[in-house]
Amino acid sequence: MSVSIVILLICSGIFVGVVNTFAGAAAAVSISVYTALGLPIEIANGTNRLPVLFQATAAAVNFRKQHLLDYSVGLKLGIPTALGALAGAEFAAWVDPSIFVILLATILILLLTLLIFSPNRIFKGNGKPAREVRKLDCLWFFLVGLYGGAFQIGMGYVILGLTIMGMGYDVITANALKSFIVMLYIPFSLAVFMYHGQIAYGYGFVHAIGNVIGAYVASRYATRINTQFLRWLLVVFIVLTVLDLFKIISIKNALDNIL
Length: 259
Known about the structure:
This protein has helices at residues 3-22, 27-36, 41-47, 49-65, 71-94, 97-117, 135-150, 155-166, 171-195, 201-220, 227-245, 251-258. By secondary structure, it is an all-alpha fold. The longest helix is centred in the last third of the chain and has 25 residues, at 171-195. The relative contact order is 0.23.
């Protein structure tokens, strides 16, 4: 692995860590970088779990140090999410790569629409105080786990939507819960991809270094970061990834010319 590739993985990882700690969908950047470096889509998808695990752990630990994390609620929501992630990851590991590309591109287009037209919708809450976890919440998070195990991209938005709009938590508390829930379920989906040999460990661990740095910075200095700039940068990455998935452009060829 060349020095330029290491720098690319760490720098992109920092951006991913910052964006995912605030909300989500930055896994699209990771997928884009991995495929640009030549990884098949199914291995890029599996490898993405490695940096997400480290990133979520770093953010959850930092939120806990600031006394913003409720372990009890996190466990009640995280356990059904983990169970769903097992099944979702198994689906992603077995599905035909061409079908996975279509599904992934569809998800990215939906996320792109959300980021452009209603980026702050999920942060408004339901106007009610936070409530206790109900059985229906566990079912919803099991279904969320199915999606996260298969795709991961946008999981932050989904979890924040359920905890803020559905359960009444404020943005900061919801972000702390999101980091803890992701930290709980990612090892389950990661284990499935490891079993199927769909992890590029070198790329994943190097990218994780940047993810941890970004997650730490975001969870510690949240008020100083320009989220609007991050949002539009993420929009650019998603557009490029979709174009690349449909073979309209080749990020790999462009990256080869640069590196």
